[in-house]
Fold these 2 entries.
Entry 1:
Amino acid sequence: MSRERREACPICRRPSAPEFRPFCSQRCADVDLGRWLNERYAIPEEIDSDEPPPEPDPER
Ligand SMILES: [Zn+2]
């Protein structure tokens, strides 16, 4: 069982590079970090309930 395990980059699904695990490159690591930060910032602390939530555009 000495098979080298290659995880796929969660961003682009390419084989990950050891130095950027689990990503394949610094770029994908940055992308993931950016997403993570965005999710953090997206956490609503105080929502003004004056505005109604945006309605999804019905695509037809
Ligand atoms: Zn990648």
Note: The domain at 7-43 is CATH 3.30.50.10 (Erythroid Transcription Factor GATA-1; Chain A).
Entry 2:
Amino acid sequence: MSQANEDLAYKFQLEDAKRRIKEGIEIDAAGCWFWKKLTVNGSAVMNIHGKRVHLRRYLYISKYGALPATERLITACGHKGCINPGHQLSHTHFMAEISPYSHPKLPQ
Ligand SMILES: [Zn+2]
């Protein structure tokens, strides 16, 4: 496949992934995003570009950029299962107490 075709195929997969993510998310009154599709051990997962990805992490990285593999995410809104990237804090940020939320919960 030529580079241009590969880029096009990648772009298509990305658009398709975005569409599938939108379809699979239910947003509640608090703005929390809940995944209605496949979960593994309570974690929202989806196959993107032929790989199984953890959506909470994937969405966070898509929105805010890279996250070191060793860095955990904490759901600062306190709603278990919420995958809204705006409701996640990296563990480092959480510990530095720069949470935009007034009462961040400690991880279970
Ligand atoms: Zn939330």
Note: Helices lie at 3-24, 55-64, 91-95.
